Amino acid sequence: AGKLHVACIDDATRNGVYYSAVDPWCTWSEPMNVCSPQPEPQFSNQAIATSKTTSKVCITWEFSAGAPDPGFYRESPDGGATWGDPTEIPWPDAFGPDSTESYHVTAFYPYYDAEDYLHIVTTIMWYDNTGAGFIIPAQIWHWSPSNTPEWSRIRLAGPNDPANLLAPVGYVVQDVVADAMT
Q1: Structure pTM?
Q2: Which residues neighbour 177 within 8 Å (Cβ) at sequence distance 6 or greater?
Q3: What is the per-residue pLDDT across 85-117, written as a single tens digit (0 to 9) for each?
Q4: CA–CA distance, 145 with 119 (Å, rounded to integer)
Q5: Where are the beta strands (DSSP E) in 17-129?
Q6: More confidently predicted of 179 and 147
C-alpha cells in the first residue's frame, strides 16, 4: 500500500483546506493550508486527486461566499512534498453576455487521465444582472489546460426538459424551479 493523500477542512470555522498524508498507516503528516493567498472555501467542498502514473497530487476548492464563486486548484508534482501556487480557473462562457458564470458548491472535482493530464469537472451556475443566482439550467463542464479549447460542456439540463431535473439541485427554492419550468 502507498501513501494516503487527504484534503481536509477545519470543520468548525470552514476557514481552511489542508493537505495531509498518512504514510505509514496511522502516521499523519502536519497539515498544510493549501489556499493561501487565495480565499478559503467557506464550505466543505474540497476535492483531491492523485495521478496513477506519476507522483502528482491536485486539490481543488470553490469559494462559496463569492457571488460569483471562483474555483481554485493547487498541484504538487512530487507526492505532496512541494506545491505550486494556488491557481484560479476562469469560468467558461456558459450563459451569454447578460449573465455571470459561477462555480457551484456541489461540484469542482479534479482527476488525472492515463497520460497524466489534469482535468476538472464542475457544475456551472449563473447570476443575472440583478445579482440573483440560479442553478437552472444546470450545466456540467470539463476543463483541462491540455485541451484546445480548455473548456467543453458535457451536459445541459434545462427547464424545458423536466425529466432531467427530477430533484432540486443544491439550495434551489422550489418556486424558482416551478417558475423556470413554465
Answers
A1: 0.84
A2: 136, 159, 165, 168
A3: 999 999 998 887 777 888 888 889 999 999 999
A4: 8
A5: 17-22, 32-33, 47-50, 57-62, 71-76, 87-89, 99-112, 118-128
A6: 147
